[in-house]
């Protein structure tokens, strides 16, 4: 066995919310002296090379979101049928190809460095490792599949006696009556949509060479890995008395230093000078949901021309803009793409559609939220933030201007929201995220045990 540090093979699902935190871990491991190989779609090639890692191409997630898919998913969301459809066509259907690419990559790395240990670090929804943990033979040159550390960058979705099924948006309940409720709900969804999803998952697992097939959806994405880190803090997750010991909290990834070459908008000095004179409201819909009539425009209208507020909205896509006939209010600025952290350091409230990345950004900056959004995992994000006391959860995909304005006023007028935000920030600062992950790598390092 080589006395070199183990080679780290990373992979993640190729959209920003899944890639960014995983890539931040990869970048930090490069800085700590590890050789990193990252399997991801072509959109992220430059970024991978920039952080000093080796890039290996795989299927592009963006290419999977075809016009046909978008047309169909709009009909189905936010129902569980929409979840089943997106899971099949975005995640599971292409799993066999992703798995083959990982196998080829591992075999190539083994030929290149026959005696060197490899540790796999995957984002839980990548689907590229999953079948190996369910009976697919290991790649050539390996007696068994390498040790695997996984990162979950969405709300924790595994089955528990203390929680209702994932994606129903129901708060946890560990009382006797609550556990009975939870069991009944699980039986109901397993007899319907989740049962269908298990059948679909089994079909593609068989194609990918698996020999064991989970009886409930989602769980094995996390529980089959040697260790899975939930990339947040316990206070933002439902408590589970039966949480597997392999599932652990690592905290939210720290703020990433801004690229020195980044050029702020011309109006940035004006914005930065407003702190303390007006309350600052930051509005964003993330990088996937880009129908701005759902949240950005209602927020701008609802908070328009108020002398006590300054509203800053980002559209999440470089080059994006609002319709030419929309009048941006006098107390607002709109920009196509902005880094979150420099804004949140100044903001008093963050209006968001409930992406998990947005939630973690608010935690590390100590900012309360107003949340909308009920698609993908956003319903579950809203329940967790509301339960923690961090956010007003509107529970709708398209709030009215009046609903946004009322929620913003509630957050700004009730000091408890800011107090909770600062408490969660302090809790997160107690986690050395990168150190926790490296300690797990060291624990798995074979040369340390010889």
UniProtKB/TrEMBL annotation:
Molecular function terms from GO: hexosyltransferase activity; UDP-glycosyltransferase activity
All copies of domain Erythromycin biosynthesis protein CIII-like C-terminal, residue ranges: 324-428
Keyword Transferase applies: yes
Keywords of this entry: Transferase
Membrane-traversing stretches: none
Domain of life: Eukaryota
Stored Pfam families: EryCIII-like_C
InterPro entries registered for this protein in UniProt: EryCIII-like_C, UDP_glucos_trans
Protein name: Glycosyltransferase family 1 protein
Natural source organism: Oidiodendron maius (strain Zn)
